[in-house]
Amino acid sequence: MASAYIWTQGDPIGAVKRLLNILRRQAPDAEIGSIGTTGSARKLIGAMLHADVVKNEITAHAVGTLSRHADVRTIIEIGGQDSKIILIEDGIVKDYAMNTLCAAGTGAFLSSQAKRLEIPIEAMGDMAMQSQSPAKIAARCTVFAESDMIHKAQAGYSKMDLVAGLCRAVAANYLNNVGKGKQIVSPIVFQGGVSKNKGVLAAFQEELGEKIHVDADSHLMGALGAAILSQKKTTHRKPFDFSMLQMEYVTRAHICSGCTNNCEIVQFYRGDTLLDSWGKRCEGSVG
Amino acid sequence: MKDRMETIRSFSCLENFERGDINCTKLAILHLVMHMKIGLPKALLYYRYGVLWETFFHELGFDVEVSADTSKETLEIGTKTTLDENCLPLKIFMGHVKSLIGQCDRILVPRFSRTSKTEEYCVRFWGLPDVVQNTFPNAPIISYNLDIGLHRSEAAAFIKIGHTLGKSKSAAFQAYRAGCRAQQRLEQQNMRVQSTQLHKSDKKILIAAQPYLIHDAYVGGQLQKMIAQQGVTPVFSDRCNRRLCRALSKEISNDLYWSLNKEMIGAIELCKNQVDGIILLTAFPCGSDALVNELVLRRVQNVPIIQILMDEHTAPAGLETRIESFVDILAKRRPYA
Lengths: 287, 337
Description:
Largest sheet of chain B: 4 strands, parallel
Shape of chain B: globular
Low-confidence stretches of chain A: none
Strand order of the largest sheet of chain A: 5-4-3-6-7
CATH class of the largest domain in chain A: Alpha Beta
Low-confidence stretches of chain B: 11-17
CATH topology of the largest domain in chain B: Rossmann fold
Helix content of chain A: 25-40%
Radius of gyration of chain A: 21 Å
CATH class of the largest domain in chain B: Alpha Beta
Helix content of chain B: 40-55%
Number of strands of chain B: 10
Oligomer: heterodimer
Number of strands of chain A: 10
């Protein structure tokens, strides 16, 4: 399987171009038979690549994980901007929850704290595992967690203990917010970018008292799900044309002044061709 | 008041009026009163009493102006004019009131407190006229109190508004009765439509929430549209038989005292076997919903439920993800149901 996990760095279109070039280098002879997109920018990228399937991340994650762990009952997923819990019974999604207003306890939080502590995010997990006495860091809200961490650092805790404390805070925060009121039944699979962090995994295992599986491709489950769904959906499409990546893709956002709703319309162009547009709240708005 | 004086001047017997001719003055006042315009903010309890209010004022011979559907601008104005800590529906309400100032002679802002000895409204409704008057000192508010706990009936409250507007007891009472009938007709009509929808085999989602969230164009309207786009019929918790809902609410909790929440959970109990899923729609930071929805999530079993929290979000992406995945769950469940 050719795969890559890269950051969008605020530019999803550029990231997809980079990603496709990486994939092409990994499998130069392969043809692209179908395309599925998922995640927050699924519409944008779906329009850009003429995807066969544009699927929300809950369903994509469930499908992806079920293809590897058919007996899974609980999926804990913590990604870059959101976190979710998916409960499965007899191979179908029974219930799910997502983080609500804030992005507390997601990968974005860990990476900003890693930056503050000047350690590479990939090293956080190993560092946390070395700690003998993790610092206690408030888990209710990440704004509090951050100020708590600064106080602990000033009180003289080592970086190792701070990192271990942060990992525990992420797990506790998740269970208090996203997992609140949900019955977490084994087998449990932990995935998303944050699942690569051994410290968070250890914290979850300690909190739940259960063994938690982390797939070798745990960061790719959503992509895998979207791929499986697109494979099912596709009907003899033209092979994907890589020269498309040379084209210029532009999004233009404007505020429609047709009525008092002031919809924020985004129009998506390839060169001068309008591919798609979205953001309309009402019938009247232009775009 | 200035334009009132102009109307009086344009009145045909101006000279007599200035000389103080009693009959003419009466006539002039009558003319004014007849053309007085009452503004109704299309928010909060408008979605429950709107037709009653409109009919009441029409019957008494007044013009009525209902503010336009909530738009982004309404919310922006509301957010600017109220405290940050107020809830989303109250911010929307303020936006509506602001849009009516200058357009009407009076704006109706009722005070709702207790609806029976054991039931009441959220405290925001208790203080609504005060909050509005303090926010907009020159808003020409008229109000009535619904406080049945104090042995005062709704009719008495309406007679009192009639009195403030110079109408007799009997005229106000008649108008109130006509209003009740009109409101009831509409509600029965809505219930009939919903009950046919509930008996169809289409996929259905119950939106359980305060009426002013479900039917607000900006909040629930958006949600309804997204649900319909997924090929699912939305049905509403406020379009069920209220008396039945109040009785059934005891199945979930005996101790609730918020009228609207009580009816909402009764509707869940009533419809849960007829719908494929339930969406609990709530607005940030609603105190009563926070408690009651948690109760529903814990006590109502065997039907998929999600809670959706709305705030001043502008990007609909998060809402879309939640609706899409919820509908996916329903699609997968159905063959097993």
